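Obj: model holo form, ligand = inosine-5'-diphosphate.
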Amino acid sequence: MEQTFIILKPSTIQRGLVGDVLTRFQRKGLQITAMKMAQLTEAILREHYAHLIEKPFFPDLLRSMMATPVILMVLKGKDAVEVVRQMIGSTNCRKAAPGTIRGDFGMSGQENIVHASDSIDNAIIEINRFFKPEEIYDYDLLLKPATYAPDEL
Ligand code: IDP
Ligand code: MG
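Output (holo structure tokens):
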């Protein structure tokens, strides 16, 4: 099954929303296969946000992502990359649809609660950037037969 990479951003830690966001992913039926707290560095953020380095807001984005430690996660499920992108909503929380994580929990374009991989290829790159193979756990989710039909497994 597909895996995707998530960051619970510093604003989520500061605002006490870690449990609420995590609950949404778990209730959906996604499996947590890796999770840790880490202080991100400028070097790793320059890799992770390479597509944004030339943007005027990049220095603010760096400061924001290093303001506190973050929580890094890998979530597993059928079509997990697309499912999670739909769950988080549009980049700007003020434009994100109600019912999405950003639409329900945020008011900002920058302080937008959560990062999630935007493609299967990027998910693989990002998981490898932030996790060692031995930090990702391969275990059986006992509720799987109640979560999926046999032909979806
Ligand atoms: P995404 O997080 O929805 O994939 P990206 O375009 O990859 O959006 O941007 C990465 C992060 O950079 C966003 O989540 C947000 O924190 C920040 N960001 C993107 N566009 C803006 C902007 O116009 N102003 C301020 N911050 C932005
Ligand atoms: Mg992105």
